[in-house]
Amino acid sequence: MSNNVNQQPDFSQAPEGATHWEPVSGSWFKADQSKRAWMFFNDESEKWYIGTYFDDEDSGSELIPRPANHQETPDYSWDGEGMPPVGVIAEFHSFFGIAQFRDGTECRVVSAVTDGDVTVVTASFGPHGYHAFVGECFRPLRTEREKFIERCKGLVIEPHKSEMHICAAAIFDDGARFPEDSK
């Protein structure tokens, strides 16, 4: 069994003062020299707490430091093949029936781990915090045209769904759009 961990989390999503990321727990850390301890950030309370002391065995050994050449706005793209790269903005896709987030909710990938045939992706859902799902629950951002076609297909009953994308594409290309407030 081999683990493949993307080694660079998205530090633009880190709380103020964070200098390290711990991929197993998905937590942000910073060193507090006065307490001789690693502090971890609690997303719910939005406060820093003592994690481990510098004297503890393996203290900080799993932490990934903020790179010296860190960019606040990483330029990532993803075509949907393989693991989504850390930092990419993707869409949550609930084709497993997960209703925690609405299909198409945008999020930023902060870590992706593959163990055997399973990929687990941790993503930041903004004010809803960090959540981990299997990799199949994420897809690249769709264009407005792709979103329009998908919504049109949802309005059609079987057996006509398979041909609906052709009609919806033609309607979109002709200028039709759904009103934003009717989602």
Give the DSSP E fraction (strand runs of 2 or more residues).
25-35%
Low-confidence stretches: 1-7
Q: Based on helices, strands and strand pairing, what is the structural class?
A: alpha+beta
Mean of residue pLDDT?
A: 76
Largest sheet: 6 strands, antiparallel
Q: Bin the helical content.
A: 10-25%
Order of helices and strands: EEEEEEEEEEEHH
Radius of gyration, taken over Cα atoms and rounded to an integer in Å: 20 Å
Determine the N-to-C terminus distance: 44 Å
User: How many helices in DSSP terms?
Assistant: 2
Q: Compute the number of strand runs.
A: 11
Shape descriptor: elongated
Could you name the key traits of this structure?
disordered N terminus; 13% helix; alpha+beta; 183 residues; 6-stranded antiparallel β-sheet
Q: Concise description?
A:
The chain has 183 residues and is an alpha+beta fold.
Describe this protein's structure.
This protein is α+β, with helices and mostly antiparallel strands. Among the domains are: 12-65, no CATH class; 144-182, no CATH class. Helix content is 13%, strand content 31%. The protein has 2 helices and 11 strands. It has helices at 144-154, 161-173, and strands at residues 3-5, 20-22, 27-32, 37-42, 47-53, 64-65, 89-92, 106-115, 118-124, 130-134, 138-140. Strands 1, 7, 8, 9, 10 and 11 form a 6-stranded antiparallel β-sheet that branches. It has a 5-stranded antiparallel β-sheet with strand order 5-4-3-2-6, with no helix packed on it. The radius of gyration is 20 Å and the shape is elongated. It starts with a strand and ends in a 10-residue tail after the last helix. The model is unreliable at 1-7 (pLDDT under 50).
